[in-house]
Amino acid sequence: MASIPVANIYYLLCYAWNEFAPLQIARHAEEEFRDTLHLFSRQLIIGLRSLHRRGLETGYVPLEESTSAPRGRILMAPSIRTMTMQPAKLYCSFDQMSANIQSNQILKATVTRLLTLQELESPVRRDLRHANSLLRDVHDIELNARVFHAVRLHQNNLLYSFLLTICRFLYECMEAQDRPGQYRFREVDRDEKRMRRVFEKFVLNFFARRQKTFRVKSERMNWFATAGEGSNLDFLPAMSTDASLRSINRTIIVECKYTKTLFQSRFGAEKLRSTHLYQLSAYLHNLEHNGGADRVAEGILLYPTAGRSLDQSYRIHGHLVRVSTLDLNQPWKGIEDQMLALIRSQPDKISL
Q1: In this structure, are residues 205 and 16 in contact, taking their beta carbons and an 8 Å threshold?
Q2: Is the pLDDT score of 317 beyond 60?
């Protein structure tokens, strides 16, 4: 697939995360950036400046120290050892309000890791060093997937939430090199497996956010089947839709296929990919026993492209099936309009 504009990758990611930048940093996404590394680095810099102006989030941090003014809990064994050299002091454990909390540690560790990247432009590197200095009282930690799962934020803290989402994205895109402490950034659109997940989440969350006609969810279907004697239904493969859209009168199943090639070749002729059609047809056929709108559910096979256009409509075993491409190389407004047009009333040409 041809290169996708950086701004479009940004919006795809925001929908996939189901999270959008607060106003103080959202406007910077409209600037021109060479890649997502520089876009998110800039947003991280602006966000850290904003946090510093209003004050970093703080929390109670457990501390232990030798003190002549006891507070908190006295630790007897360390205190006995301490009194042999400092008779007037006890060793105490207590909680103290501090900015040295996990969310700030993740921010600092991300900035520190970014500064190891050779591909960063000098102005961004300079601003990242300054942003790092704003976190001088925060301890260094080693980033791993566990710390992102463990962090806890206060409700309604949108700026922290989005910045930590950026941190996790940057962490997942940085590959360790042979030398310790050295990393290389890999753009998300070069990872087909990851972009497949991003595209599926984008489609699901876009429809959930941008229209009010349908209820939207990804659903796991049960096979309309019974097991023969000695057979186990658990052996049947799972059926999970990328997006199921339901209203009183319509059911639409959207299957997303992030692939470099739209067609398969048969005897030198281009044909739609049979496995994709079979999968969608199985979903639609399995819904028929539900009755109502599910009995005549519609299906959409959606392929992302960067330049090529395809829009084919069929009626297959009583179900309307549409095979369409979404051009990710057009302005974002065009992508939004094309997405919403997909779920409007189907055109007359397939009302057979």
Answers
A1: yes
A2: yes
